[in-house]
Structures are given as C-alpha cells and as structure tokens.
Write a structure and sequence with these properties.
The structure is a single chain. This protein is an alpha/beta fold and 502 residues long. It is built from 16 helices and 22 strands. The chain has two domains: 266 residues, Aldehyde Dehydrogenase, Chain A, domain 1, CATH 3.40.605; 185 residues, Aldehyde Dehydrogenase, Chain A, domain 2, CATH 3.40.309.10.
Length: 502
C-alpha cells in the first residue's frame, strides 16, 4: 500500500491496516511548504483496547519462540530497512522537514539498535551457580513482561521508536507504538516491513493519537510497561500516571545541553562542531547543543567564528541537496521560537545573528527560522532557562572550567554536556565532575552507540533505566531466580524451620 497516497492514515492492528473508530483527525503537513499532506486519526480508547487485545492474543506464542528465531526476524527487518533507507529518509524529510541526509543518518542510528537487538540470545543469558548447597543449584532467568508500549516524539520518527521496539520484541514482548501525530507515516512503514520480515501478526501495532490515546495506554491494565521520549512536563505526567497504574515506566524528558570551550581548544574545530550540533535538524534534537560556555579568552574569537559560520548555513527544504538545515515542525513552533528570541533581546542578551526573518525562495509558506546566536546570556534569562527546541544557540561566558561545571550542575536539565579542549587533565576533571547522563569530549552530541544506554539525569529522566543498551534489555524483562534440588528417593525433606543450603 502507498501510504503517502492516502488522505486518511489507518491504524496498524493485528498485522494489518484498520480504520480508526474516531471522528477526530489531525493534519500532517510538509513543514517546508505548509501543505497538508494527509490526515491522521486520533485513536479512541476502543482503538487502544483493540490493539492491546491483538497483542495479548499473539504474545503467548511469541514469548515461547526461541530467542534466535526472534533475532532472525529482526535481522531480516534490518535488511529491509537498509534496502528502503533512501525512500524512508525522504518520507521522514517530507513530514518532519529535516534534510534527507540528516534523516538517513537518524535511520542508521536506529538500525544500530536493531543490530544490537539481534544479539539477544547472548544478552538474555542468565547466571548459574553450581552446588550452592548440598546437591542444590541456583540460576537466573530474564523473562518478557507482556504487552509494552512506546510513546515517541516528532523529532525522530524512525530512530526513537527503534530505540524501543527492537529490544522489546527481541526480549519476547508484544509492542504498541503511539508515534507523534505530526509525522506518523514512518511508523506504519516500519510495521509493514516488520510483517514482511516475518513478525507474527499482533506482535507490533501502531495507534495514532493525542492525549486520549496516551491516557488509554497509561491506564490500560493489559499494558505492562511504557517507554516515552518528549518534554519534561509530559515525561513527568507519563511517569506519575503510568506508575500509579502499576506499570514499569521510563520517561525521557527535555534538555538544555551545554558545550564548554576552553582557551586551549582548536576553536575552528569547535566552532564547526557546535554549528552542526546547534543548528542541525533546526535544533529539534533532544541532544542539540543549545548553550555554549566560553571560558576566559576563548569567548571573543569563538563568538566570531560561530557568527561567521552561522551566517553561511544554507537553509532550505529538506529535499534540496544543498540544504544544511530545514524548517521547524509547525507554524506554532516557529512562532514560539521567534517569541523566545524576542524575549532574549528584551532581557538584554546580545543578538549576534538574527534568524527571525528567514525566507526561502519558492517556500514562502514554510516554517523556517534561521540560525540564531546570542552572546552575553545569563542564567536568569528565558533563553537560557527554557528548552527552545529550535535553531537558537546562546553563549554564556565563564572565568574557569570549575565555574562552567557549576553552571551545568545547577541546571534542572541533565541530558548531556560536551567539553572542547586539548587537555587530558581538564577532560578527566570534566567527565568526573559534571552531573549529566551523557558526556562528550571534543564530541558535541555524545549520543552513545546502541550497546551503551541513552538517558539523562535530574529532570531529563523519570525512571531508573535508560533506553537501549543493557538498560533496555533490563527494562523489557524481569528477573527470576531459581533454586533447584533433584533428590533421590528417601532423601530428607526440609523441616518446619527456614531451610539452609550449606
């Protein structure tokens, strides 16, 4: 089925497309043109219940399948994702606005989690202790939870879902995905490719929607775990509501990622890296650098290099081969970002590069904001405190590395931070003392590889376990310890006292 030709998107339940029971629909737009591409249903509680029922019915057989069989299906899914990668990237670009090259990169990072998940026969191995007592052995198992759900954001319609469902499926769970209603078509394409790879019907389901669908997921007794990525207020709501209904929840929230630049750093290298980290994907990344902390004499030359390069960033439609940065996701997002830039000016920050009047010839109705750079920003300003989620980079000046670390540690967000330096001593001091979940040393966006886990601290994460890596395996399974004895006839049985095994 050509999903892009549909006026109204379907749900995916029980291995096939089905219409929603809803009467409410949202618009899916092309951010570069403002054109309405298609409409997305806002699923009802009955839709969510139908997905849970389909998943529950399919799960008992799936959980019993050998881990190697599950891994082989994911291997075929990985091959299909690679075979269709360019078409999938164009679909992401069309609905999100990011450049096709950036979309391809994000798909590749998601596929890396699929590759990690194909090692599940090894990752699920338990522990064994021989003869913990007389003729008694102990060992551990990791078993699936049941039906799990993922609620994912608009900024990575392929990568973030693939942080979740490949491991959930590999561990033997069924999965329900509630993608962002702003760019939902990619989730349906992945559902089709999973079916083509051999995934049994009902094991992967897609329900679109808004708060009604989210609340139905959070309260449904048939769903055992929920994974979420989004803003901090919603992450907190997801965590509190889901856990109140007895679910295991990991909820990743917002960020205000800092990059510290020391005077000894290669400023040309640092500036180029920061431009990509701040303005790539129009700043709509949870790991985007939004604050650069210039230490000492690095400040003025770094500002000048950032300003010069920011003015040369090519802004255009995502499918334009020369574009380095596309539009933001919606007109409302553009208005919010421009409003925060206005406020930064009002509060006294120095506006070095102004992106408020960005225009792209032939795309006058698109949702474009140009690269924006502030200097002399203070922690009291709204542009420092708020997660702008747009192409706005603010510079704060600091007298020392220790002062920069204190600034980062005082921020309520704690997703990631980076340091640019040539000093191994400074790098070690930074990575040991900065209080964030992910650290980059001369790496501006320190998103770890799939075999490590992704997640922040403080208000950037609600829950105990991060996504993918071994934390992902732990999140989608629960442990069981077995103590076993096989006595011969006539062996003494334990008495009324608490048995000891020594």
């Amino acid at each position: 089925m050509d999903l892009t030709a549909l006026e109204r998107l379907p749900l995916w339940i029980g291995g096939r497309t089905v219409p929603s029971r809803t009467t409410r629909y949202g618009e899916v737009t092309n951010p570069a043109t403002g054109e309405v591409l298609r409409h997305v249903p806002f699923a009802t509680r009955d839709d969510v219940d139908a997905a849970v029922n389909a998943a529950t019915q399919a799960w008992s057989e799936w959980r019993a399948a050998p881990a190697l069989r599950r891994a082989r299906i994911l291997m075929r899914f990985r091959e299909l994702m690679e075979a269709h990668r360019k078409d999938l990237a164009r679909l992401v670009s069309q609905e999100h606005g990011k450049t096709v090259a950036d979309a391809e990169g994000s798909i590749t990072r998601g596929v890396e989690v699929v590759e990690f998940a194909t090692g599940i026969p090894h990752l699920l191995k338990g522990e064994f202790s021989d003869s913990v007592g007389s003729e008694v052995d102990s060992f551990s198992l990791r078993q699936p939870l049941g039906v799990c759900a993922g609620i994912t954001p608009f900024n990575f319609p392929a990568m973030v879902p693939m942080w979740m469902f490949p491991l959930a499926l590999a561990c033997g769970n069924a999965f329900i995905l509630k993608p962002s209603e702003r760019d939902p078509t990619m989730s349906l394409r992945m559902a089709e490719l999973l079916k083509e790879a051999g995934l049994p019907d009902g094991i992967f389901n897609v329900v679109h929607g808004d708060k009604e669908a989210v609340d139905a997921i959070l309260s449904h007794p048939g769903i055992k775990a929920v994974s979420f990525v989004g803003s901090t207020p919603i992450a907190k709501y997801i965590y509190e509501t889901g856990t109140a209904h007895g679910k295991r929840v990991q909820a990743l929230g917002g960020a205000k990622n800092h990059a510290v630049v020391l005077p000894d750093a290669d400023l040309g290298f640092a500036a180029e890296a920061l431009i990509g980290a701040a303005y790539g994907s129009a700043g709509e990344r949870c790991m985007a650098i939004s604050v650069v902390v210039a230490v000492g004499e690095a400040a003025d030359p770094l500002r000048d290099k950032l300003a010069e390069r920011a003015r040369r960033v090519v802004v255009g439609a995502g499918d334009n081969p020369g574009a380095e940065m596309g539009p933001v996701i919606t007109c409302a997002a553009r208005e919010r970002i421009v409003g925060l830039i206005d406020r930064g000016v009002e509060e006294g920050a120095t506006l070095v590069v102004d992106g408020r009047r960005a225009r792209v010839a032939g795309y006058e109705s698109g949702f474009f904001v140009g690269p924006t750079l502030f200097d002399n920003t203070t922690p009291a300003m709204a542009i420092y405190q708020q997660e702008i989620f747009g192409p706005v980079l603010v510079m704060v000046r600091s007298d020392s590395l220790d002062e920069a670390i204190e600034l980062i540690n005082a921020n309520p967000y704690a997703n990631g931070a980076a340091l640019f330096t040539r000093s191994g001593f400074a790098a070690r001091r930074f990575q040991q003392n900065v209080e964030v979940g992910m650290v980059g040393i001369n790496v501006p966006i320190p998103v770890p590889m799939a075999f490590y886990s992704f997640g922040g601290w403080r208000n950037s994460l609600f829950g105990d376990l991060h996504v993918h890596g071994m934390d992902g395996v732990r999140f989608y399974t629960r442990g069981k310890a077995v103590t076993a004895r096989w006595p011969n006839d006539g062996s003494a049985a334990p008495g009324f006292h608490l048995p000891t095994l020594g």
